[in-house]
Specification:
single chain, alpha+beta, L-fuculose-1-phosphate Aldolase, eight-stranded mixed β-sheet, 46% helix, globular
Length: 265
């Protein structure tokens, strides 16, 4: 096993631990994956608690879903991960888990509203598409996410009565999307206990959406250090993007949120 593979396995375990501690992967729920090479994907095993995984327990499969290496079976929802990679040649990692408030919204038949939180507008372009219900682990589940994740402005898709699927250039970025989405759902839930949400001013929304589009462009230069998505592997000459570190990206988000809040007062 080379250093890259060991690092990717370790990253999956670290992110799984964080999502478990956050309460998004209870019991043996949830699954993570990342592309290793042209035809190899690393994925979490089935049935194990994701909070205590070891790098040696991560399973290696090919992009047809066949196991290449590992003592344990891969997650039963591997087809959903492969469907996301098929639809999005620009991504390298997938995170699927069950954030409780987001799932509660779908169980109650409620959408996560747009035009309320700057974070939803900036991080998700104001929308989290909802995939129709499909039996967990079934081929229908894989097909259910295709339409929503195909749109490159969508980095996350809600699964009706089930959970959330998020994608990124590495497993950390995918997990960050999960955290942002659940945090937004929590704020909306609390606001409704206090009497209901107040919408953002209409003239601030376009500015937030412009920031969203800028973030979509910039994120690859933050997270693509070892991305092996097909598009990252292309050898066609490209102009070097301006280097933007994670602190600059965070500054852009906070500045957009600050301005939106000020205009809404």
């Amino acid at each position: 096993m080379n250093e890259l593979e060991w690092n990717l396995r370790s990253d999956i375990c670290e992110v799984a631990r964080r999502l478990y501690v956050a309460g998004f992967m209870t019991g043996s729920d949830g699954n993570l994956s990342t592309i290793l090479s042209d035809n190899e994907v690393l994925v979490t095993p089935s049935r194990l608690c994701k909070g205590f995984l070891k790098p040696s327990q991560i399973v290696k499969i090919d992009k047809q879903g066949n196991k290449l290496e590992g003592d344990l079976p891969p997650t039963v929802e591997v087809a959903m991960h492969l469907a996301a990679y098929q639809e999005r040649p620009d991504i390298c990692s997938v995170a699927h888990c069950h954030p409780p408030i987001l799932v509660a919204f779908t169980v109650a038949g409620l959408d996560l509203p747009s035009c309320i939180l700057p974070e939803i507008e900036v991080m998700f372009g104001g929308k989290l598409p909802l995939a129709p219900y499909a039996t967990p682990g079934s081929p229908a589940l894989a097909d259910s996410i295709r339409k929503g994740i195909r749109n490159r402005e969508n980095s996350a898709v809600l699964l009706d009565h089930h959970g959330l699927l998020a994608v990124g250039r590495d497993i950390y970025q995918a997990a960050i999307k999960v955290e942002h989405a659940e945090a937004a759902a929590r704020v909306i839930y609390y606001a409704r206990q206090l009497g209901g949400e107040k919408p953002l001013a209409a003239d601030s929304l376009e500015k937030l959406h412009q920031t969203h589009r800028k973030i979509v462009e910039l994120e690859s230069s933050v997270y693509a250090g070892y991305c092996h998505s097909p598009e990252c592997e292309e050898n066609t000459p490209q102009p070097a993007p301006a280097k933007v570190d994670e602190f600059e990206l965070e500054r852009i988000v906070h500045e957009a949120v600050r301005k939106a809040m000020a205009e809404s007062r």
